[in-house]
Structure formats: C-alpha cells, structure tokens
Amino acid sequence: MRRILGIALAVLLLGGVTAVALAGGEDRPATATKTVKGVIGSEKSEYFRDPDVVKALADKGYTVKTETSGSWAMDQLALKEFDFAFPSSSEPAPEIEAAAGVKGAQTTKPFFSPLVVIARSNAAKVLVDNGLATTNGKNSGTLLMGPYLKAAAEDRKWQQLSGSAAFAELTGTVFIKTTDPTTSNSGALFLAATSNVANDKTVVSDDAGIDRTAPLMQKLIRVQGALEPSTDDPFRAFISGSGEPLILAYESQVASLLQQKQAPGDMVVLYPDTTVNSPHTFVPISENAKELGSLLANDPKLRELAVRHGFRPQNGVPEFTAATASHAAYLNPELTGIRQVSAPTVKILMALAARAKS
Known about the structure:
Elements lengths: L1 H23 L9 E7 L4 H5 L1 H9 L2 E7 L15 E3 L6 H8 L7 E6 L1 E5 L1 H9 L3 E3 L4 E4 L1 H9 L31 H14 L8 H16 L9 H9 L5 E5 H9 L8 E5 L1 E2 L2 E7 L7 H7 L1 H9 L3 E2 L3 H7 L15 E2 L5 H12 L1
Parallel strand pairs: 1-2, 1-3, 7-9, 10-13
Antiparallel strand pairs: 3-11, 4-11, 4-12, 5-8, 5-9, 6-7
Helix pairs in contact: 7-8, 7-14, 8-14
C-alpha cells in the first residue's frame, strides 16, 4: 500500500510540474539557440554589448559575439572564422563578400548614421566668425564645406582667423581629425564628400577626377600626422577634454551619448553641408547568420534599441526624431540643409585614399 501511494504521489507531482510548465512557458526567458560570431565597426560595439540588446537577440534565438575592425580592412581578415561582417557602410560590402566567398549574399542595411564634425565651442565660434560655418543655436550648426576646403587648400592657420587670438588653445593649421581613409569607413567617406565638393560638386569617377582632387585630399590627411584606425578613440578623447578642436565622428556617437545622459562637455555638433550617409551593411557569411540582418532591421525592439544607441533605422526618421526630441539642441533629425551625395566606386575611393596618404 505504501508503494502504491508513493507512485500515485509521484504521478500527481509530475502532472503538477507539467501543468505549471505548460501554463507558464510563455513567461520563461528565451534561450538562444544559435551562437554567431561577427566582425563589426567599433561604433557598434556598445550596441552589441548592451544587456537589453543581448536579451532581445536571445529572445529571437541568437547569442552574438563580436570583434572590431576598420570597415575597409575587413576583407583582409580570415573571414571564414566569422558568421557575418557588419561594416559601417555599403561600399566595403562587395569586397567582403568576394573575400569570404559569398559573392551575391543577401546583404541588409539595418540602420545608418551621417557624419558630423564635433567642435569645441571656441573653435566653432571662430569658424562662424570667419564664414566657415553657421550655427542655429549654442550647440549645433553646419560646416560650410566650400569655405572650409578653401581654407585647407591655403593651409590656413587658426592664428590667421579673426577672433582666434582670444583662445590660446587654437594654434597651428586648421584641420579636422579623421580616421585612416584606407582602413576606416568614416575617413574614407570624408574623402568621398570632400572630393565631391572639390570636383565641382560631382562624384569623382575617373583618373582625371582623382588627379584634380588628390592635392587637396593630401593636405586634409597629411596635416593630421598619425591617423586613428577607428572613430571610437578620437571621440572618447574629445569627450574627456583632450584631442583636437575639430573631430570627425558619426552622429550616432553623439546621439547615443546624449540619450545615455552622459555629459557632452564643451561640444558643438556641425553637420557638413555635403555628406555621404553611412548605411551599416550586414553581410551574412554562414547560414547561421543568414536571417540575423533582417532581424536587426525589422524587429521593433531591436529598432528601438538601435535608436537608443544613436542609429537611424532605415525609413525611421520619425523614430529617431521622437527618441532624440529632448536633445534637439545638438541634432538635425531631418538633415535640413544637408546635400547628400553618392560615394565614388570602391576602386576610385581607395585610389583617392591611397593618394591622400602618399
């Protein structure tokens, strides 16, 4: 009798556990079923490290591990070791596909970010007073590429600009600190935009265009000295109070900083009046990552988290505008007054970058 009662009790307990599991199954945290490894631009590191992003991906069945690289250097990596590559624009994607042996892969562009120049307030004031920039408030404005490039071509020094004498920290040649254009996306796209202006507002498309614009591109790059491999270090240096007075960055870095309520310090955000947008392009390499790009682009939670990290989802201007409304003093959500141009072909752009560094 004791044995029969024990069996009956065990059956009842098992039934209860099963019932609880069935009833509460939807509330249990999802367990990731695929672990994928990707190489990404450094500006996306914080996004993929965000615990909320990690959870949102796990809920969809993914554990994502990442390493960083300059976007234009990704095709030099042992790509078979990765499930995906995620450069900071579409231009390096074909080279990555070819190097990975997945030419014709179904790439996705989940989000994008325009380039901006972040300036110390004193530097911004001097630029405005000398017709190289305009401001529409204390913390944002527009860099006038034509006048700025004319000053660069003439090797203009801060001391030659009216009003600079009041600011002892503004010395030497006026330049924007960029990244290495031969390996880093932001540096390459800066040359894409500046060469467009220097080439009579036309995309450089041949050797003649390279020859016309190369001397100015060399001045823009040579004056900087050592070049950084990614935008992350110069941006962090600027925020910490060191670094150059003018630094090229992604809007996403600024928007992310503001939304995380970190102190922006002495910052004015200048949008170049001619720019090349940077659509972060997901390149699947293995079957395991094939659907991940679409998930990053379309899942509502992941889109919301992308905006939190300063990125603009594709067709997501209202999402970005709403999320950053309290920081409108720094940002230009509609990109009003900005001329958006195409980048040269990869071959032309890399030739420009090589000439700029030569």
